[in-house]
Amino acid sequence: MEELDVSDGFDVHDYRHGLKLLKQDRGTMTLENREGFACPACGEPFERLFVSERRTNSFGNPGGPFCLARTDESLLVLTH
């Protein structure tokens, strides 16, 4: 299982073959993990990935466990 590499930032295009874009707006995107990529925080497979370049974000109840990963450019929220 390949883990998302966020050690030098995160480029969604590196993982486009296994992530399906569900929603995108200015500064954010939500993707579905269709390849079984592993979470960079806990090493377990995740279901959805939210990527934000915004300084602030609000979230509803994710319905289960989640992990956070931070790069210089973005915040990644991974739901399990």
Structural notes for this entry:
The protein has a domain at 1-7 and 17-55. The protein has a 5-stranded antiparallel beta sheet, with no helix packed on it. A hairpin with a 2-residue loop joins strand 1 and strand 2. The protein has strands spanning 19-25, 28-33, 48-52, 66-70, 75-79. The protein has 80 residues and is mainly β. The mean pLDDT is 93.
Strand content: 35-45%
Distance between the termini: 15 Å
Query: What is the strand tally?
Result: 5
Residue stretches low in confidence (pLDDT < 50, at least 5 long) are: none
Element order, helices and strands? EEEEE
Mean pLDDT: 93
Net shape: globular
Rg computed from alpha carbons, rounded to a whole number of angstroms = 12 Å
- Helix- and strand-based class? mainly beta
- Give the proportion of residues in helices: under 10%
Order of strands across the main sheet? 1-2-3-5-4
Q: What's the total helix number? A: 0
- Give the biggest beta sheet: 5 strands, antiparallel
What would the keywords be for this entry?
single chain, 80 residues, mainly beta, five-stranded antiparallel sheet
